[in-house]
Amino acid sequence: MGVSRYLASQLKPDPKPHLPEAVEAQIAAMTIVQKPLVPLIAQLEQQRKAAAAIKNDEEKKAAQQAYQQELTRLAREASTRDLLGALYSSNQLQEQMTWFWFNHFNVHQYKANLRAMIGDYEERAIRPYALGRFRDLLRAVVHHPAMLIYLDNSQNAAGHINENFARELMELHTLGVDGGYSQRDVQELARILTGLGVNLGSSAPNVKRELQSQYLRDGLFEFNPNRHDYGEKDFLGQRVRGEGLKEVDAALDRLARSPATAHFISRKFATYFVSDDPPPALIERMAGEFARSDGDIASTLASLFASPEFTASLGLKFKDPVHYVVSAVRLAYDDKPILNAGPMINWLNRMAEPLYGRQTPDGYPLTNVAWASPGQMATRFEIAKAIGTGNAGLFRSEGPTVVERAAFPQLSNALFYESLQPKLSQQTREALEMASSPQEWNVFLLASPEFMNR
Question: What's the pTM value of the predicted model, to 2 decimals?
Answer without folding.
Answer: 0.97
